[in-house]
Amino acid sequence: MDEFPPELTLQNCKKMLEENEKQLLKKNREILYNNIMDAINNCEKNVTLHFDKKLWQKYRKTITGELLAIYGEIKIITTQKKISITKLTTDIKDIPKNIEKIVIELYKE
After folding, report:
1. What CA dihedral angle connects 41, 62, 76 and 96, to 10 degrees?
2. Which residues sit opposite 79 in a β-bridge?
3. Hey, CA dihedral for 49, 52, 53, 54, is it positive or negative?
4. 105: left (phi over 0), alpha (psi -120 to 50) or beta
5. What would the pLDDT profile of 47-100 be if each residue is shown by its tens digit?
6. Which neighbouring-strand residues pair with 67?
7. What is the CA radius of gyration of the chain?
8. Has this prediction a pTM greater than 0.90?
């Protein structure tokens, strides 16, 4: 390559990244759904859902809000300065940043 192509611009890179993240969001939703169904099929009362490390936090928050709307209550595990913090959440306004995992209680006795 003698020189970079003219379509290699910051704006185009941002646009491509955003599109790739949206595809990753869809893929993560499908994976998390399958994890929930596997837990149900295996008679597990709880399921821990892990996000793809490449998924941006804003999309992790989107999925977390969607699951909160479905289940009404979820535990959110965040990492802050190498310390894991677990927070039980029932309100979308209380969803923290730096979401690593979600724990959903599928069955309460």
Report:
1. 180
2. 84
3. negative
4. beta
5. 999 999 999 999 999 999 999 999 999 999 998 777 888 888 888 888 888 899
6. none
7. 17
8. no
What is the number of residues in the chain? 109
Identity of residue 25:
L
Q: Which amino acid is at 85?
A: I
Instruction: Determine contact, residues 50/31, Cβ cutoff 8 Å.
Output: no
- Residue among 54, 79, 49, 52 nearest 64 (CA): 49
pLDDT digits (tens, 9 = 90+) for 3-45: 999 999 999 999 999 999 999 999 999 999 999 999 999 999 9
Closest CA to 36 of 85, 108, 107: 107
